[in-house]
Specification:
six-stranded parallel beta sheet, Phosphoglycolate phosphatase, HAD_2, HAD-like_sf
Amino acid sequence: MKPALVFDWNGTLLDDAQALLQTTNTILERFGRPTIDLDTFRDHCDVPLSILFRNVGMSEAEVAAVDHDGGAIFHDTYEPLADKAELRVGARTMLELARQEAASSIIVSNHIVTPLVAQLRRLGIDRYFNDVLAFESRLTQYKTMSKGERLRRYMEENDLKPESTFIIGDMPVETNIARSLGLISISITGGFVSEARLRAAKPDHIIHNYHELLPIVQARGFF
């Protein structure tokens, strides 16, 4: 049986922590709030991002203003910054190996499909993925099916076995999804949350770059 590799996108494959930090600080400055550093960002980042904004001191009215019009303030700031972000170290090599081994590679993201696919094409990695599971538009982001439910249904429809499915993410939410669905959880540091928060979620494995992923997959009897 071939494995399935389920990747989060932001912070996991795309190295965009600085882009999201800069976006957050632009929004904080717009409302007259003090900016934050990367460590503070990683201590407080959560999804939906309205939680992050509340965690760093924004009022409910300010958070509602950011959410207005499909989060235009956020997306119009973030997307040009994301256009300059690169892949995480070793990600391209791992994706190429997965394709050579005929493994399934899937993205499950809280981002929006169209800009996400545009980033895959910009980076030249769209051919590596069987499917991209994400929100349909800005207006539906965080308002329809959760990542976990989206993945659960996809696994049922495509007969993916939990015991041969790895989920790789940079936040505790992916570990929680793995625990709920019986998957193998791998947390990667250097994304949107601190290593301490990742460890507290108790994933099956923690890696610091994608060169460390291959031995884990091999130890499970694949590749």
